[in-house]
């Protein structure tokens, strides 16, 4: 075989790979029909920078941010926003390692994380911007029960493992007229470290009346069987009779699970709605210093109509210190996220939009980024 | 095999008689045949099951031209539409770069082992190292590149870093298969070449490598097929992007395994579930196409022995 022959065969192989690769010149799909043709063409051209924004973090806000990115691209077609839902902890780490432009997290920066973040931002502090409220549902699968009421202490006992069967008097007392089987309660929990677990255990600790003995943490310390990620626990409850779990609202709805109403001590059981979750956020206290908007949620709130088990997911960004073009992108995207348009798209996805006064504060903080 | 065919004429005519009488041997024969066929069928069950499931759940999106020509930009898990163009391109680009780096090193390494280093201490060391490299799990290769690329050099996560870690996985596969192929080239060919006064390097270039060319290409394709489905390096070394990014040196990049991983958490939603199956089928098809190409190249480049 001659070198010519070699070259020929080689080029055939390369060419066929190339043809395979380039046969279709790819493109992006047309924006979905929801946008009116007039508004999609650079209606706010002045506010639209160009470039790519990379972000990473909380999986609890993935669906929200995906939707907002999609809507944002109808307005600003020249901006590409990537979001990787690898988890809050990973997001903060990647942000501090200068790998992404902003991070998504279910909990505000801890002091040591803030130190690292300040270093990453060139000596300027990073900022926690509350962006989405993700209610956590207690979801059950019990034959014949489609309305279910729980209160803090009972929930804590179930997830701690001190209440073991469905026909326990404590459950019966909260649900008059409902007959429960005498079957044991199968509890599912998140086996991965999760912001959802952390917020849920904070609730159990705060309103469980001492029945929850562990400390709130990303890692589960209660009873039950572990499943990976929100999809895992939701699937577990869906496929197991007489089971219970805690999971983001959207997963409970998508899997058609029965969602518990919570009696927060105000006397009436509260159904999980965007409105009732928003009310709980109104009871939150600011916890951050300066322009930082970290919130301290009141999980033991007794406010009428406030659904207490919520988590706030933050975007974490530099107040200063990013390159100018990245700053413009971050500001443009985040201010769209917090705007009325951005927040309005969230309710359909089973998130709760931010209350108006918090929206205003967050927007002001974003405008102050330079 | 040869023994049986050689013996056959001697027993001709009596053969029927013998098998008829020896019930125990016939029984053993039947039993072994049944067991072997059974084992084969059992081995086939998972393969057919996987193929059947993936094809039946994934084929309908693949029939849509958009699947091959559009990205997932602006498509959320609740929405139909979009395609896998960004992921297909990402997988192809990263694999191609991997091959461009790994194949020359692997082929040259194999040439050294077979032609130059036979029996030397250096060759034994190289061979031993390749054996170790074969056993390195993909996650370790990925973390190693993470440590070098990001922790030490401070670069960003990009597609090229993935390629670098895939090189570590592809190199031993290609090197070993090339080595075997070169060993199969008969020494007579080399000796004939030397006898005509052809220098060693020219003998290797024009006689040894061309003779083994088909086998080498097959090895390369198998190596590619091996790295195309790797997920760990993608998860660690590059962010997933739903948008088209053809630049392996800048920004997040989509790939088929990470596309599957991305939508996997939302299987309760039909559009996402459809895309997961379709992306899985696309990946299988890509690997299949590569294998078919490898066969074709091997067939057409085979040295014809007249």
From TrEMBL, chain A:
InterPro entries: ABC_phos-bd_PstS (IPR005673), PBP_domain (IPR024370), Phosphate-bind_PstS (IPR050962). Keywords: Phosphate transport, Signal, Transport. GO terms for molecular function: phosphate ion binding. Phosphate binds at residues 58-60, 88, 106, 194-196. GO terms for cellular component: ATP-binding cassette (ABC) transporter complex. GO terms for biological process: phosphate ion transmembrane transport. The keyword Transport applies. The keyword Signal applies. Residues 26-59 are annotated as: Disordered. Pfam families: PBP_like_2 (PF12849). Residues 1-26 form the signal peptide. This is Phosphate-binding protein. It comes from Kribbella rubisoli.
From TrEMBL, chain B:
The keyword Transcription does not apply. NCBIfam families: 3a0107s02c. It comes from Kribbella rubisoli. Residues 88-294 form the ABC transmembrane type-1 domain. Keywords: Cell membrane, Membrane, Phosphate transport, Transmembrane, Transmembrane helix, Transport. One of its GO terms (molecular function) is phosphate transmembrane transporter activity. The keyword Transmembrane applies. Part of the binding-protein-dependent transport system for phosphate; probably responsible for the translocation of the substrate across the membrane. Pfam families: BPD_transp_1. One of its GO terms (biological process) is phosphate ion transmembrane transport. It comes from the Bacteria. It is a multi-pass membrane protein. This is Phosphate transport system permease protein PstA. GO terms for cellular component: plasma membrane. InterPro entries: MetI-like, MetI-like_sf, Phosphate_PstA, Phosphate_transprt_permease.
